[in-house]
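re: that chain from earlier
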Amino acid sequence: MQAMILAAGFGTRLLPHTLLRPKPLFPLLNQPLLLLTIKRLQNAGCDHIVVNCHHLRKQISEALQGMPGVVVLEEEVLLGTGGGLRGALTHLRDEPLLITNGDIYHTVDFTHLYTSHNKNRAKVSLAVHDYPRFNTVRVDNGRVVGFEGSGDNSCLAFTGLHVIEPGILQVIMPGQFSCVLDCYRRLLAAGEKIAALRVDGSFWTDMGTPEDYLHLHGGLLQGSIPCWPEINRPKDSPFLINAAASVADDLQMDDWNCLGRVVVERDVILSRVVAWDNVKIAAGSRISDSLLSS
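^ sequence. v structure.
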């Protein structure tokens, strides 16, 4: 199996935190999401993975340097989802390509998605589900029939997971910004089949806002969100503190917290906080519902 992780975006809804690191490298329970996603793809059978990057791309290149079976493509100019995929075409094998966004956490079965595509004889297969916040893909009898839905009962949400036959990317102009959905619209107009593979029942979040990011941590730490086996979640505890953290012995924690290699001074109370490496929490702080990145 081969896969591509789209990891080039700016993550503007997560500013100012994305000024420090690209969203795919945001830590999830103190481990970069991108590295966890790669592990998960490899455990599903992917032996060839392409990752494109643009915003703070050197951080991604350094994080993946020397990783077997992983090719990193740095984009000097942001190319969008279509342009990024087109730029990867010469690095792809002549076999179906599994595509995932680099900023989503989900429990969709990669292997099932891939094998389902191989059975449905479509050039594109989109993983979709009922997620009212994003329901814009019009579906009829297992096929995608449009991308400008109004949110009625025929519309579902695109998860950012799809499997394609790489040859369809030839129609995208190389080196130019493009949205891959425009390519799919052209396929529909030409009468080609785009399969809609429903993944209802799987957990999914795009981790697009600080609130989404905190909610994901809380769910993972408290057990309400399924945890990937690739993540070493603390058992029977809603609190995770990096072993290298320097924490005062009077720290009080409520609900859940996830702390990286931080310094926590005396008389601090934390509740529902994610703190990245190198954060210093001053004496007397009372902090809740916050992402601390610097």
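The chain has two domains: 2-202, 217-292.
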